[in-house]
Amino acid sequence: MIGKENTTPKTEMIEISSILIEGRSRDVDEGWAQALAAMFKASEMLNPITIWQSADGPFLVAGAHRLAAHVINGETHIAASWSKAETVADAKVLEIMENIGRHELTALDRAQHLFDLKQAYEAKYPETKKGGDKQTEQGREKLNGIVPFSTDTAEKTGLSDSSITKAVAMWTGLAPGAISIIKGTWLADHQAGLMAMAKEKPTVQAKALEMMFPTNGKPVRAMNVPDALILATGKLLETTHQKQFAAADRVFNSFSDEDFGALLLSHEARIMAWVEGRIGGVK
After folding, report:
1. What is the pLDDT of residue 142?
2. For strand 77-82 and strand 11-15, is the pairing parallel, antiparallel, or unpaired?
3. CATH fold for domain 2-168
């Protein structure tokens, strides 16, 4: 329905200084804004930005990089189309839904968008918070056909309910300080690493990130999240030999008696030599 309302939006030139851009979900990539600025000098912008009329003035819904490019070029006005969203929550949903399907989003970006989308969705439908009460008749009547956030978003984005829930949990689990360090690094697009980091306390996150992305010219002490978390908790990293031994031990312990017996038989000569050495006092 939102897409249908905006198929033929009204477009006009808007004064850039009047456009409100606070509270947007997606940070502006300065490099991309510079590239767009160069493109717009050579040819006009084909797609106008989208704005919404708030009580304080035009609110930017989509087109932050296009807007930044016009600022770089010294432009004072920009072509914009007016969103027909009824509330700021609806306008926020429009912005996030446009960005959430972009291929260049990192795992961290997408988690932030999904969290912001959840906030906007629950602001519009507060009865869906915590999934809503679907167990009682009163709860089902209160929901009145409104589906929980993860279900609604899954239908619109093609993401699974579980991936949406995990992404939101990941974003809320990461400390603000950790997020600022992670942005712009390889870890921002490493889902498993982000999930592991989000499960730890803020103090552990800070220590682990210092191991991977040290400041003040310090050497890197960990190349991945698992190792960084081990060091951050005061433990020592296992050597390659220790890791191999532990892996083999886990495999042996998983064998049935029959399979373990077959393994011993396949290495009978080495085992007997070791036993004879132990009996003869050689260790």
Report:
1. 42
2. antiparallel
3. 3.90.1530
